[in-house]
Structure formats: C-alpha cells, structure tokens
Specification:
With 89 residues, the protein is an all-alpha fold. It is 76% helix and 0% strand.
Length: 89
C-alpha cells in the first residue's frame, strides 16, 4: 500500500476518533460547570441539599474538548471532501 493511501487512512481515522473524544471532554466540562453552579445555589439556599463532589477545572476540559472537536472535523473534512479516497494513479 503506497504511503499516500496510508497517510490518508490515518488522517481519516484520527479525525473519526478525535471528534467523539472532543464531544466527551466538552460534555464533561458542561457537567462540571453544572455541578459548580448547583453547589453555589445550594450554599446560598437555606435548604439542606446533598453534598456535591469537587467539580475541578471545567474551563480546561471545555477548551480541550473544543480543540479536539475542531481537529477531528478538520481532519475528516480534509481527508473526505477535499481529497476522497486516493486513486491508484
């Protein structure tokens, strides 16, 4: 298999793997931000709400998620729409 086809295949598969990984990181950031918001509402309220674990750095999870989403979409578009499967020529 020529190097051009292997490079095309690796780029396409990497894009397919990066997109859902980015979506997972982005969703994790949204969940962590929601936990922090819920915690701040719980401390301001007079009701006794269950304790919430530490939410962590939601901002960096979101940034990493957006980077992975954009990289995955970019690799898929570049390998699929622009070039398509390399011909035998």
């Amino acid at each position: 298999m020529p190097a051009r086809k292997i490079r095309w295949y690796v780029k396409a598969q990497l894009g397919v793997l990066l997109l859902p990984a980015g979506l997972c990181f982005f969703a994790e950031a949204a969940i962590r931000k929601g936990i922090l918001t819920w915690r701040s509402l719980a401390t301001a309220s007079t009701e006794q709400l269950p304790t919430v674990p530490d939410a962590g750095p939601w901002f960096w999870y979101g940034i990493l998620g957006l980077i992975l989403i954009n990289a995955g979409v970019g690799l898929m578009v570049e390998s699929g729409l622009r070039r398509g499967y390399p011909d035998n020529g």
